[in-house]
C-alpha cells in the first residue's frame, strides 16, 4: 500500500535535504545521509519492514545512527515486533493536489523572501528584525515535497506557516507541478489538514538502539 507515494516522498525528501546517494536493496530504499549521528535512512512499506530492519541491524554502528521510516497502519505495534529497534515517533505521509491547497497571504508586518532554484524553492518570512518562519519544497519529475516547515516559537499561531505553505504551493504550481507529498509531525499535521492535505498512512520512525 502507498508504495508509489512513499517513493515519491522519499525522492523529494532526499532532494530537499541534499541526500543524493540512494539505492534499492531488497525492496528497501537505502539513503546514505553521511551525518555521523544520522548515517543512513531505510525507507520501506510494511511488507518490507523485516528486510529494512535486517539491513539496519546489520549496519548499526555507531549505535543509534541508522534510521528507518516505514509506512504502516499501526506504528507502535510494528515497532514492538521489530525490537531491538527503538520506536522514536509516528509521522504521517500526506498528499495534496497543489492547485487545491487553500491559499493565505503573508500577514503584516511580516515580509517574504523566496529563493527559486530549478529543483528547490526556499521561503523565509521575516518580522520584528528576525527570521520568523521558513519552509522548503523540492520539485522533481515525481512531484513536489514540502520539508522543514518551521515557525519560531515566538511567532506561532499568527498564520506564518500557512503563508509559507501558500507561497511554496503557488511557486510550484507556476512550474506546472501538481501533486505534492510530505511527512507530517504530530505538531504539523493540523496545519496541513487545515490547508486541505489528506493523510495516506502513518509512518513509523525508528532507529537502531542507542547506547
Ligand atoms: C507546526 C508549525 C510549523 C505551525 O506553525 P504556525 O506558524 O504556528 O502555524 P499557523 O499559525 O500558520 O497555523 C495555521 C493553522 O494550522 C493549525 N495549527 C497550527 N499549529 C497548531 C497547533 N499547535 N495545534 C493545533 N492546530 C494548529 C491551525 O488550524 C492554524 O489555524 P488557526 O491558528 O487559525 O487555528 C509550528 O508549530 C512549528 O514550527 N512546529 C515545530 C516544527 C514542526 O513540527 N514543523 C512541522 C514539520 S512537519
Automatic annotation (TrEMBL):
PROSITE patterns: GNAT. Residues 80-211 form the N-acetyltransferase domain. It comes from the Bacteria. InterPro entries: Acyl_CoA_acyltransferase, GNAT_dom. This is N-acetyltransferase domain-containing protein. It comes from Kribbella karoonensis.
